[in-house]
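Project standup — Tuesday

K.O.: blocked on the structure for the chain from last sprint. Re-posting the sequence here as requested.
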Amino acid sequence: MRRLVACSALLLGLGVPAHARANGMLGHMYTSELAISHVQTSELKQLLLDHPDQYLNGSFLPDSGYAAGDGYGEIAHWSGFIQGYLTWIQQTYSPPYDQGPAAEHVAVLLGAASHGMADESFDILLYDKAAVVDGDTNELDTGTDVWLVNDRTITYDPPLVIDADALSQVFASFTNHQVDPAVIIEGMTKAKGAHAVVQTLLKQGHQRYRDLYPWASKAYLNPSVPGSYPYNARLIANYWEQIWRRLNANVSVDESLIVGLDPAPSGAAAERYLALDHTSVDGWITLFSGHGLEGSSLDSNSVRLLDPNGNNVPYTLRVRGDAWAHTIQLKPDADLSAKAIYRVTVSPAATTLNGEHLPSDYIAEFKTACAPGDEASCPQLGDPGTAGAGGTGSGGAAGAATGGAAAAAGASASAGSAGSESTRGASDSGDSGGCTFAPHPQTRGTALLGLLLALVFGVSRAGPRSQWKRKRNPDGND
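H.V.: unblocked you, prediction finished:
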């Protein structure tokens, strides 16, 4: 998040840290709260309802590392930390994990997981779309934060309840990062101190950002817009279900691995047509995985785009993560055929960070739009206003009850989907889910963020976020 130097100086005078991601952290807490409404597993939902302070702390834990000037913040966004924390809980406590201290740690874990997944979805879906429609997005992250505190009642002020000693152990044992517990407390304290500042000093400037970003200011709470708060809430609930299953059954991979798709594919309540223009963000296909996938295992052999005749379609693959990706995006190299059905398959060659594989191909189908001038021959798809919800895929475990996680995050598959959908104080919003994402400094507003951190905290920003872009050809030669 960006701040004027004058504002930074004022905050310094007040003794309050002007962290570049302060309002983003409020948005992440909002995300986690709203996502609870879509959780299907009763024990998981009740755990979250019983531990609001813990999941709210977890929801801003990743960004607190930037306030402390320590790399733990960047690490906490990604799969290695999430799986490491999960494993630490399993090694430290015995089931059931919805009771006592174990439940407190699980709630923190889920809050941190929510933060990471929301960042990925917002950044690759809504942010990229806003860049096309509204133009320069240099101040969009700040805008979404300021809109949120005006458009919703945001009063989060949870006490600090994280176990810094335990988190220090997790970072050291599972991510090879040494951080003193006092540094984690420092980061969380600074981050928490910034929350009220956003709600007071920055709130009144919302109209300027609405004028700068007319499309995004309406889209960020629109359930039908991929990457919006409601969309992300459903996606996060699906992800939580995956983590809960993995925690309790030590099962990482089955047909429910894919927890969300954009566009919502054939059979989903929020189904939409895939654009023909291969350069359009509406012509790209994005998959979200409930477990980190090894980047080196993702290529044209493990992830395929097939035309109506079953032929491989050349595409460019974009994945996001550390060494393991949660987000996979396929960008066709040429325009697609009109009024056709394309398929995406993910094979068992895709490998999770635990070295596990899908039991069979995951398959999702997408309908392409009609040719220009022939739009009338393409009927309206899906249920207008649905936040990526619906589907006919057969998910595992919790997903089976709702037709798969596809049913909750716009994923639908013929050979597997993901599964879940279920609150605390979010009923006034009218949203069916949500999350704000002030994109990480690694990808947005780098220069100004570095300046503000130096001015306010006297620290330097963490290194760049990992992101790979690879050209994929049908023959598998990269």
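K.O.: great, moving the ticket to review. Residues 100-133 form the longest helix (34 residues). The first strand starts at residue 258 and ends at 262.
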